[in-house]
Amino acid sequence: MLAVTFQAPGEVRVEERPEPEPREATDAVVRIHATGVCGSDLHIYHGRHPVEQGFTLGHEFVGEVVAAGDDVTGVTTGDRVIGCFLAACGRCWFCERRLFHLCDDLRIFGHGEISGGLQGSQAEQVLVPNADLVLRRAPEALPDDAALFAGDVMNTGFHAIRSGGLEEGQTAAVLGLGPVGLCAVQAARHAGAAQVIAVDTVAERLEMAERFGAHPVHLTEQDPRAEVKAATEGRGVDLCVEAVGHEQALDLAVRLTRKAGTVSTVGVHGERCQVHMGLLWNKGLVLKAGVANVIANVDEVLSLLSSGALDPVPLVTHHMRLEEAPEAYAAYDRREALKIVLSPPG
Ligand SMILES: [Zn+2]
Ligand SMILES: [Zn+2]
User: What is the C-alpha to C-alpha distance for residues 193 and 201, in angstroms, rounded to an integer?
Assistant: First the structure.
């Protein structure tokens, strides 16, 4: 089968790989219909997240179950399914408390040995461990382009707002309008935010945020702090989502948030980063961080996608063939796309 593999920073390749087979009774194999290219794939592409040469990338997928182990009961051969971007053991202290994203045996698809060694979904087929936790049947009427967001991007945007405790009538800011930030804008509106202030530097992304009901603010051509003050009687926002994964964005989030407010960081941080702790302390802020608990959220997110309450389809700017992955990565790296969906042949 064909698979998109990491070669070196700035280089991915489409290569032949053996088809996966279930090894454990809880495994399933999914034939991929559609798989996304994600911001975290770019971290790998840039060499910031170490992945072995030849490792298959990708962690967002919709497809059909073609094999399932004897202990898999939630899905069966022939089902159209969506996958969560991570696999959890279901048995450890954290999984018992439904903190699947913090599982002691957490494995992330397509992120190399350091993240559990699960080969990725940018391939014709993917092996899925613990399929009952990781896979869900896709609602029939839900198109692939929407379903693809259930296990990662929309789920992460939803998590940013849910874990940030946003209440109806409150004001949120979202820093960074990549697909996750834009999904957080939708999730905030759906949660009843009176106002969502969306900050970025890319005109198309600001336009998309406005289309989703946010007040767009250009990071450098406008003054985000002044805009937030004007919108909140000078207090600051109740919740600020940091969807960039950069020190400066986190610092701005701390400044834009009102006293006793919450900063929710879903941008990927892998390194030491300075936060103005004095400011955080004096303002009595809550700082939430980490990957989304996608397994715990996935049923709710799927039903919100099915009802149309959340609709990420406008974020899909490109459909490309799996074989075009090198071009897809390069285009995404140039910020020419929001969500690129790759489809294997056949
Ligand atoms: Zn992703
Ligand atoms: Zn676990």
Answer: 23
pLDDT in tens, 177-220: 999 999 999 999 999 999 999 999 999 999 999 999 999 999 99
User: Would the pTM of this model clear 0.90, i.e. be above it?
Assistant: yes
CA dist 103 and 94 (Å) reads 5
- Strands (DSSP E) contained in 46-144 are 61-68, 80-83, 86-87, 107-108, 125-128, 135-137
Short-list 54, 63, 52, CA closest to 126:
63
Tell how far the Cα of 86 is from the centroid of ligand 2, in angstroms. Answer: 11
What is the distance in A from the centroid of ligand 1 to the CA of 243? 13
- Closest-approaching ligand to the CA atom of 129: 2
pLDDT, one tens digit per residue, over 57-85 is: 999 999 999 999 999 999 999 999 999 99
Question: Which ligand gives the minimal distance to the CA of 111?
Answer: 1
Extract the tokens encoding 189: 């509106």
Distance, C-alpha 40 to centroid of its chain: 8
Are 235 and 259 in contact, with CB atoms under 8 Å apart?
yes
Which ligand is located closest to the Cα atom of residue 99? 2
Edge-first strand listing for the sheet containing 215-218: 215-218, 195-200, 171-175, 237-242, 257-265, 286-289
Q: Residues 118-142, buried b or exposed e (16+ Cβ, 10 A)?
A: bbbbbbbbbbbbbbbbbbbebbeeb
Contact 87, 107 (CB under 8 A): yes
